[in-house]
Specification:
By secondary structure, the chain is an alpha/beta fold. The chain is built from ten helices and seven strands. The chain has a seven-stranded parallel sheet, sandwiched between helices. Helix 6 links the parallel strand 5 and strand 6. The longest helix has 29 residues. It is globular. About 2% of the residues have low confidence.
Length: 269
């Protein structure tokens, strides 16, 4: 793991974390601040965003800037580059996502487009906004949050899983393109993680501790430790074993298996 000084030298002095109010995004902001970077926290939910921003500044002593913004906006890149002004952004983490667990035919076109706006267009526009200066400086980092669901389509998750596949493939390509310019790119593929969004998708009896559920701190620690070591990471040994097991199956069988899991999830909510 790089030292605090080397992490700041390569990825600082400022980081942008999109989707930073709660859950994984808030944890990214905390751990990045603990490594010495000042942090721009972006979210549309103003109250928890400002609470998280103040808490991080008080706990770590770094500078924080809360930016209230809807990441579904078509001009989100312009909005955020204006908000950060002259601050030098050396690390971009795109954590925000819109999702739902429901059959495709029960999902409205409006909601499907909202998932594409936040999950696909948002990271694309922010990469266009913040990566070119990193390339010019010859250093920097980009983390995109994919998901284990991005490896295979499954029942009840058609659009969400497809959007996470977009981020996985985008990160693969940018990892190859930007590495010669000193910019590290990583797609993170978590499994079940105890975030507010995950909690709302579970039946009450499944929300407690369990070996299949990771904590946000574990996922973020794995991601930051892996940044610069490869194009993607799956946090958690059980999750990595699951990915390997599915990869050994014919694709149709893998899709049937994960669909059985997501179909049962809907029945239990």
């Amino acid at each position: 793991m790089p030292s605090r000084e080397s992490f700041r030298n390569h990825y600082g002095p400022w980081a942008v974390v999109a989707g930073a109010a709660v859950g994984l995004g808030a944890e990214y902001a905390r751990q990045i601040a603990a490594r010495g970077l000042d942090v721009v926290l972006v979210d549309r939910d103003e109250a928890p965003l400002r609470d998280t921003s103040c808490a991080i500044a008080n706990d770590t002593g770094v500078k924080t800037l809360p930016v209230v913004a809807d990441l579904a906006r078509a001009d989100v890149g312009d909005v955020l580059t204006t908000a950060v002004a002259e601050r030098e952004i050396g690390l971009l983490v795109y954590n925000a996502a819109v999702g739902s667990v429901s059959p495709f035919l029960a999902t409205t076109p409006r909601h499907s487009l909202a998932m594409l706006d936040v999950n696909c267009r948002g990271p694309l526009l922010l990469a266009h906004a913040f990566v070119p200066p990193m390339v010019a400086r010859g250093r920097g980092g980009l983390i995109l949050m994919s998901s284990m669901s991005g490896n295979y389509g499954s029942e009840q998750l058609a659009v969400y899983a497809a959007s996470k596949a977009f981020n996985l493939v985008l990160a693969d390509a940018l990892w190859a393109e930007l590495a010669p310019h000193g910019v590290d790119v990583l797609a993170v593929q978590p499994g079940s993680t105890r975030t507010p969004g995950w909690q709302t998708s579970q039946s009450p009896e499944l929300r407690g501790p369990g070996p299949h559920v990771m904590e946000p701190s574990e996922v973020v620690t794995t991601a930051l430790e892996h940044l610069g070591e490869g194009p993607n990471v799956v946090p958690g040994e059980m999750n990595r074993q699951g990915v390997a097991m599915l990869a050994a199956m014919p694709r149709a069988k893998a899709v049937e298996l994960v669909s059985r899991i997501t179909r049962d999830l809907v029945r239990n909510i």
